[in-house]
Amino acid sequence: MITVSNEGPKFVIADVTITEANLSNSDQFKAELVSLLDQHKKIIILDLQELKYVDSAFLGALVSALKYAISLKLDIVLVGLRNDIRDLIKLIRLDKVFKIYNYAEEAQFAVNKF
Amino acid sequence: MQNCADKLGFEFDNSAEKLVGSLEYMLEHIAGNLPARADAEDILFKSKVIITELLTNGIKHAGNSNTWFEIEIYPDCLVIRKNDKGTPLYLVDPDHLPKVADENKKLISADMLNSLYAIWESENHIRFASEEGSFDEVLPVEQVMEHFGILIITCSSDEFTYTYDRLSYTNTFRVQLLF
Quick one: B77 and B115 in the same domain? Predict the structure, then answer.
C-alpha cells in the first residue's frame, strides 16, 4: 500500500496507493511506514493524493509512525492531501504535529533546507 | 428543535468492506435533503467524519449485533443517531477516570493539542466536550495521543452524547449539527 517513487540524499518520496485507509488496513499501513524508515533512514515525504477516505485508526497509525520517525531523528512529511482530509487533520490539530505541503516538490525543497 | 422534515433508517452489518458504501449512502441522503439555510459543504464534511467514526465504532465494538443508524433532518439541525447492543462504552463505569473541578465532569484523555471530557448529565447519559490545549513552540510529539475517534466526533459536532440503556442493553450515540 506504500511504494517508493523517488529518493534523494535526505528524503524518500513514498506514495500511498490505497483509496481507503481505515481500521481494516491501519496496522499494515503503520508496519510498512516503519519498515520504510528502518530501511532508508531518511525523511519520508508521504504522498496521500490517492487517499479518499480515512478514519481515526489511520490517523492513529500515522501519529504512531511519526513518533517512531522522531525517535530515529527523522520525520514524516505529508503532501497531496485532499481538502477534506486536510480539514480533518486540522480539526484535531494534527497540523501542529505534521509538516504539510501541497506538492512533493515543495516538501523536497523544504527537506533539503533542514 | 423543530419538526423533523426527513428521516432515514439504515442497518449496518459492521463489516469493514461495507464502510465506504454505507458512508456514501448516508451522505447522499443528507446532501439531497439539506434545507437551503444549511452550509452544505460544512455539514457534509462534518457528517462524513462523524459517520465514518460511528461506522468504525460499530466495526470495533458492536460484536455480532448489527448497528442501526438514524439520520434526521430538521429545518434547523441534523441529528445522526447510532444504536447497537454491543459492549457498553467503558465510561459507563467511570470510577477509574480522574475527576476535574466539576463533580460530574471527568477527563477522558489529554495531550498538548486537545483535552477530551465526559460530562454525566444523568446516570448512563454522557455528553462529550473538548478543549484546545496550549504548548510552547516545540511540541513533544511522543506525548500526542493516538486515539481520535471520540475526539473527532466531539470537535465536529454541536452536541455529542452517549446513552446506555441497562434494560435493553442498547448503546446510543447521538450527534447534533446545527445549521
Answer: no
Residue located via cell numbers 448503546:
B171
State how far the Cα of B174 lies from the Cα of B79, in Å rounded to an integer.
7
Q: Does B163 lie in the same domain as B95?
A: yes
Q: What cell was used for A88?
A: 480533518
Where is B125: in which H helix or E strand? strand B125-132
Q: Count of H helices and E strands in chain B? A: 3, 8
Residue B52 lies inside a defined structural domain of this protein: yes
For residue A25, count CB atoms less than 10 angstroms from its CB and return exposed for 0-12, middle for 13-18, buried for 19 or more: middle
pTM for the predicted model, two decimal places: 0.93
Provide ipTM, 2 decimals. Answer: 0.94
Q: Which residue does chain B place closest to A24, by CA atoms?
A: B16
Nearest CB partner across the interface for B147, out of A56, A87, A94: A56
Indicate the SS3 state at residue B157: coil
**Residue of chain A nearest B45, judged by CA positions:** A84
What would the pLDDT profile of B130-179 be if each residue is shown by its tens digit?
A: 999 987 667 788 889 999 999 999 999 999 999 999 899 999 999 999 99
Q: Are β-strands B67-73 and B77-84 bridged in parallel, bridged antiparallel, or unpaired? A: antiparallel
Domain hosting residue B144, numbered range: 90-170
